[in-house]
Design brief:
Blueprint: E1 2-8, E2 12-29, E3 32-50, E4 56-61, E5 80-82, E6 85-87, H1 89-105, H2 110-142, H3 156-159
Antiparallel strand pairs: 1-2, 2-3, 3-4, 5-6
Length: 160
């Protein structure tokens, strides 16, 4: 599914497109294309064209707005940066609204929801496994396991 929104400000024309679909995940192995399951493809294409000089800035993927920090100072009047463009706060809020509208319009398919639920369950299971391994390691150390030599030397590894 794909949708597009276009808006204009005093200084720029903004076009944002959202593509969201479920595709085959493919592993490319020595000329063989092996399907390894399904994956969610979601991409925003953002184009900002200046009305003053006609130059365009194009970015894609998840919208990544960066804000001023002590290492990255912005020019006067700029609120955020996307791609190579500095934008005002009004433009930023307009773009966030357009992105929210696109997200609501381009719904998620049943297959995508199922894949997201499955991925969340896998992440939860992985986190639980890490917690179990950390608890097991702590129990081993409490019972005399040496983290330096990875055995039950009871301090003998430092005696030599």
């Amino acid at each position: 599914m794909k949708a597009t929104r276009t808006a204009e400000t005093e200084t720029a024309k903004i076009e944002i497109s959202l593509t969201r679909e479920v595709t085959d995940k493919v592993a490319y192995a020595d000329g063989y294309n092996i399907k390894t399951g399904r994956e969610v493809y979601e991409s925003y294409d953002i184009t900002i064209t200046s009305k003053k000089n006609g130059k365009s800035v194009h970015t894609y993927g998840k919208p990544n707005f960066s804000f001023s920090s002590k290492w990255n100072t912005m020019p006067e009047g700029a609120f955020a940066r996307i791609g190579d463009a500095y934008i005002s706060e009004a433009t930023y809020r307009l773009m966030k609204g357009m992105i929210a509208e696109l997200d609501a319009e381009v719904g998620k398919s049943d297959e995508q929801v199922a894949l997201e639920v499955k991925a969340e369950a896998q992440k939860k299971a992985y986190d639980e496994l890490l917690d179990q391994e950390a608890a097991e390691y702590a129990r081993k150390i409490k019972n005399g396991f040496c983290p330096k030599c990875h055995s039950y030397c009871y301090g003998d590894c430092e005696a030599n």
